[in-house]
Amino acid sequence: MSYLLEEEKVFKDPVHKYIYVQDQTIWDLINTREFQRLRRIRQLGTCFLTFHGAEHSRFSHSLGVYEVTRKIISQFERNQYEDWPKEERLLCLCAALLHDVGHGPFSHSIEKTFGTHHEEWSCRIVLGDTEVNEVLRRVSPTFPQEVAGVIAKTYRREIVVSLVSSQLDADRMDYLLRDAYFTGVNYGTFDLERILRVMRPYQGHIVVKDSGMHAVEDYLMSRYQMYWQVYFHPVTRSAEVVLNKIFQRARHLYDDGFAFRSLLAPLPALFQRKLTCSEYYLLDEAFMQTTLMQWTLEDDPILSDLCSRFLQRRLFKYVTLEMLDASMLEQLREQLAALGIDPVYYLEVDFPSDQSYDIYRPGEHDEKLPILLLDSNEQLTEISRKSEIVRSISGIQMGKYHLYYPRDLLVKHLPELDPGLRRLFAL
Amino acid sequence: MSYLLEEEKVFKDPVHKYIYVQDQTIWDLINTREFQRLRRIRQLGTCFLTFHGAEHSRFSHSLGVYEVTRKIISQFERNQYEDWPKEERLLCLCAALLHDVGHGPFSHSIEKTFGTHHEEWSCRIVLGDTEVNEVLRRVSPTFPQEVAGVIAKTYRREIVVSLVSSQLDADRMDYLLRDAYFTGVNYGTFDLERILRVMRPYQGHIVVKDSGMHAVEDYLMSRYQMYWQVYFHPVTRSAEVVLNKIFQRARHLYDDGFAFRSLLAPLPALFQRKLTCSEYYLLDEAFMQTTLMQWTLEDDPILSDLCSRFLQRRLFKYVTLEMLDASMLEQLREQLAALGIDPVYYLEVDFPSDQSYDIYRPGEHDEKLPILLLDSNEQLTEISRKSEIVRSISGIQMGKYHLYYPRDLLVKHLPELDPGLRRLFAL
Amino acid sequence: MSYLLEEEKVFKDPVHKYIYVQDQTIWDLINTREFQRLRRIRQLGTCFLTFHGAEHSRFSHSLGVYEVTRKIISQFERNQYEDWPKEERLLCLCAALLHDVGHGPFSHSIEKTFGTHHEEWSCRIVLGDTEVNEVLRRVSPTFPQEVAGVIAKTYRREIVVSLVSSQLDADRMDYLLRDAYFTGVNYGTFDLERILRVMRPYQGHIVVKDSGMHAVEDYLMSRYQMYWQVYFHPVTRSAEVVLNKIFQRARHLYDDGFAFRSLLAPLPALFQRKLTCSEYYLLDEAFMQTTLMQWTLEDDPILSDLCSRFLQRRLFKYVTLEMLDASMLEQLREQLAALGIDPVYYLEVDFPSDQSYDIYRPGEHDEKLPILLLDSNEQLTEISRKSEIVRSISGIQMGKYHLYYPRDLLVKHLPELDPGLRRLFAL
Amino acid sequence: MSYLLEEEKVFKDPVHKYIYVQDQTIWDLINTREFQRLRRIRQLGTCFLTFHGAEHSRFSHSLGVYEVTRKIISQFERNQYEDWPKEERLLCLCAALLHDVGHGPFSHSIEKTFGTHHEEWSCRIVLGDTEVNEVLRRVSPTFPQEVAGVIAKTYRREIVVSLVSSQLDADRMDYLLRDAYFTGVNYGTFDLERILRVMRPYQGHIVVKDSGMHAVEDYLMSRYQMYWQVYFHPVTRSAEVVLNKIFQRARHLYDDGFAFRSLLAPLPALFQRKLTCSEYYLLDEAFMQTTLMQWTLEDDPILSDLCSRFLQRRLFKYVTLEMLDASMLEQLREQLAALGIDPVYYLEVDFPSDQSYDIYRPGEHDEKLPILLLDSNEQLTEISRKSEIVRSISGIQMGKYHLYYPRDLLVKHLPELDPGLRRLFAL
């Protein structure tokens, strides 16, 4: 059973001006403890160390995705498009709001080291013994299952899935605008209202009127710019590297039986990869930062040093390499080891393209639906067939190799340093 | 000794577009652990529970205050105003950057319960055994003392103090613009460049050309609007009330010898009011939120309930009262107690005006310098003598009484409730 | 008969992002020659000589007023407020769109000299033999009369009139935002969406929920700032003075039988005050500027000089006077005359307050409906009774006396100038 | 001789916030009649008929180009780049301010029909008997010649020319931002401050640090979007077509000895292609619009009809053609002629790429200097060699064929129309 609120509620939002809530179910979901928890998880992980404004949370992003979805649907309804399945409205809105509810702190690093996966957790929260599940069940007993289906992209109706997850979905539209707003860069701005106006439900897909091609190009270029200028920024990547090393070291110590001074619940469960839903709830970014702070006081010099680096933003520096020479790297590791610097934790090669970021590549990302243009003859064409610009960013060559290293440590060993190494790091 | 960076550094900032760093000292200060700690303290305390965008930190605000100060000084220098003491440039910039370095998490609540004071802590950090102090001493042995003097408003030159702390200072100019940007409200916007252009150093004061009176009115109205629409928002105040009650309860339990399951360092030192500088460093907002989360698991039902309320945003509701009737309040307390609801922790009257927020009131706030207009005859006049608008907000009557109470608890006791109480709370 | 467009049309608009047209009647009205003529009339008259961005036309403002009205009504409809007379929708929209259709070029000056009145002309265009009238008659034979009634504020339903013309109407909301955008000042910005959300139809009035009082204060302060910083700017006023003098001189010459080299139609009709609707159509700002340009070539030195001044922005300078001394003014006139400078055309005292600009003054402007606050007890209160800020700008004292004079001419007569005059003009 | 103003002057500007004038020469140039005339010429010609906000003048754009140039130079000076020839400052600023001073109304159409050329006129105004020339000569006798040299791109120092005229010049940076602001589209926004920060004078060129490549890509994409979404908009092009036809018809009539009712000076001189500088001064957009208005009253039905179309925005409609079939076109012309519709004036094929708009094409536009990236090894590389995106828009295929025709006329002849023609125009 679902019903409308007596009076529309609003949230003041810097990106969409206001976010409008009309359904009791949406209002109740926002007020669950699991959704409120998103306030304590930053949207952009380590990016605030590069762009200090990027301190916004997944809470505001999730509201934003909901709002963009609401706008798309209300446009479909206002224009009475026949191909739009009206009965799916609430399902779309709930899935939009909840698609990120499973995100943990510093997701990329944690997921890498401990094998958690935020989409899986979103589904667990939707289906498990949670306040979110309780609210959803009030709509109908099968409703949580349907919401989880949309999040997991297994729901039978593609059109519902694609609103939340495709190459032109509410998720991306919100995060590009939001991340641009909070970082203060203006690469991410595109004309949202224009995009919404050219979207159409059509035979089970969301398509775009071909007169809107340039608007979509503009949106895709915003994504391109945001990836290369913000998300892949070397300083952000450096913080990510340090964080990875921290978790790697902590896990190694734990597996080794190291006696931590402080290992607050639910860290042991995380290390043993057997978190429950209610333990996961505790694992927010405040908790993780507090843990890093506590670990600066641990006896293991590597763990303690890495945590201080992260908290005080004494990150690794980098050099750019055109190509990667395995033997050179091996040599480098040996030299570091000889200086007493463990290369496992103090050296990393990063190559942005090996990240699973999803710059538009038709065919490659099978799970991401392509953008289809609808012309006046009702023909559908995949956009990169018509736009040279989209083609130019579809097969794009990914960045360069960045070699991250602790410059401050090397500086201390200046006299002992091998000349090749000094040249490499311009010391 | 102070010197310029070889190459100017910039921070991308959403409010000022870019923040420019030209001095080695400023760069070094930003990279101290004490300054980096400000990243972990929100600028607006509990306000993010009302305006979800308000998640920005004191780190970005501090950079902003520095930048506004830099712009003012560079305007003074470009125009070669004789009354500007050029030799004070670096001192102003350092004081601007560091004036909030002593802020802790949820300052208002913590200061209220534990008697700490952020300005005092700023001075302790400037003067104590800290990285900040070390950087400042490199300029000259007495430089830390001078910076502390400006922050404490005891420095001998009023003009230096007033840049950082007056009715028209860099601090306010930045926070109004910044808080408006991040909350998304546009009441706080005023024409910063215009204000900067009409500011003049004059006989030891910072004054404003009288042709800029309307611009200053606009700035003061922005302040007025931000206070009443953002800072005093009843939901924010409710979160503040809950937080106060939490600390009050925790302190009471501690004093009572309650056996906390978790009482991480430096909480005992905080409770005993004997924090050291390095303990204070640990006390960031991540730590405090983690503590609140841990306390939800404590055995004391009041502490645990209040913490859950805060973290899940199940705050107190409020009714507005035109005036306060002490006997009615007493009765109310008794009725709550009879229902098993402790009125000490579950009832609060809030009256915004008793907060020490500093709406412009000439004469009253002796520590805040008034705004002086300079006319073409070189006469100085305090602005409220010329502007009816400024007068209208100078003696302004402060808000209404808000009575905060836990509606959800009362709803559970509906049948037992006294009719007067039901009427009062519209139950 | 009225009907909806098959497909919604939009105009890209810098202020409201998009302007949405859903009715055939609105679309047809926009495409009439009389409405298109508004493209050739600047919204802010001589203001572009002070703020060079202020080159926007009455065309865009009229679309904006329409759009704000559309938004208000659509909010009323969405919330299904009972006190809103749904059947008046199209009438409101048409009146909003057309309320300025009778504006001529440089309205203030022309109206002053030739006794035309733009509101009267709006009604003549709505009722006369025009394309506008033809479109309106298609709705119903009496529809033009109703639209004219709303514009003339004689329509029987106050609520309809007040949407277009009151202290809080669509007209002002658009022009404040629009003029702020195009001049580039940000005093005029207020939160339009917020204002719209607190407006209610109530017992035949448009009222404001009292929780929106601060938002209305903010809007009224924007008006105050725009008047004093933009509309009353002394340079704009100076251009206005020169323009007045031009028309005064031309009329004097015409009445005197002066042989103009160029006197394009419909100037003679204008001078004789007997313009027809189709002559009025020709009288746009392009025409008037071309006339001024032609008049620079006339034999009358005063007319020719004044026109050159306007076109080349060699305006009169001004001195500010605290009070006005009639005998001093008389003396001044005599001295100018003695120098061969005709004081009728080369001297003017301007006192902004004697303009009929409508800063909020309850009681005084009988034709402008006051702003009423609706509280939770369904009581209505006029806003200045609750807001000290509104009171402070209600009875505000108007500017100072500005004495405009041709400084460049006086400079040429420097040796002959009386010392008092030199002192007055700081020569 | 050149000197600084005693006090810096500012213009409020919506795009750059403020425009700063520090030199007496710049101030004097702005106040010349020739520069003030630019207030009466719209920056975007017929574009306001599509985007109603696009009513801004060449006056504001010229100030903007000046301001961008000033900012670039002041950055060069602040960083004390050795490759910057400091003595060229004033020359750059004057050329930037004056480069468009020769623009006439609706430049593209007028130039096409009457063979005038705005750059040539800019030089004539700089060198002729004008107030501009007088101001420039005060700097030095050869200064006007130097300014004209920069405008004509013949000045000996490439670095000076390229600031005002290259693929990355102050002209484009201002017009993209300004046109985006006034139309209200946000495709044209890019990060000006960022671009300025990566520009360097280097061995006689202006180059870009290669770390700024993505910022330049963003700027070039803005240009691409503005061209396709704004400048080449079919409605704007249609107005351009109608205007071309008007001038073509008028010239034909004039050459034929037609007796115009109204042919104000300097139209005859324009028709005879022998305008003097002082006649050119009269030829502003107000004059041209008044002429069009007068011509609606002429006896020639074609001229009168076309002028009404333009003024009332009853433009030609268009159909899009994939390719152009000459024989089909010939047939079409014959059919129109048979209906009494002169195909010379009522049919036009437009193919955007044949316009001399300057989408970035290295090699092709010899007069437009390419953008060079400077890497850390001091190597210069033309940007399209490094950026796939830039390559994708360098060789871009230009639009489609648009066939413009008067739909309203054809509708009147519906029964007589050939079926092929009805199909083509979907009648």
Give the C-alpha Rg of chain A: 24 Å
**Strand order of the main beta sheet of chain A, please?**
3-4-7-8
Give the proportion of residues in helices of chain A.
40-55%
Terminal CA distance of chain A reads: 68 Å
Major protein interface: A-B, 45 and 45 residues
Report the principal-axis shape of chain A. globular
CATH class of the largest domain in chain A: Mainly Alpha
Mean pLDDT of chain A: 91
CATH topology of the largest domain in chain A: Hypothetical protein af1432
> What is the level-2 CATH architecture name of the largest domain in chain A?
Orthogonal Bundle
Poorly predicted runs of chain A are: 354-362
Q: Estimate nothing, just give the exact number of structural domains of chain A.
A: 2
Structural class of chain A: alpha+beta
Helix count from the secondary structure assignment of chain A: 22
Q: How much of the sequence of chain A is in beta strands?
A: 5-15%
Task: Give the biggest sheet of chain A.
Answer: 4 strands, mixed
CATH homologous superfamily grouping of the largest domain in chain A: Hypothetical protein af1432
Protein name (chains A, B, C, D): HD domain-containing protein
Domain HD (chains A, B, C, D): 58-176
Pfam family, one (chains A, B, C, D): HD
InterPro entries (chains A, B, C, D): dGTPase-like (IPR050135), HD/PDEase_dom (IPR003607), HD_assoc_2 (IPR045509), HD_domain (IPR006674)
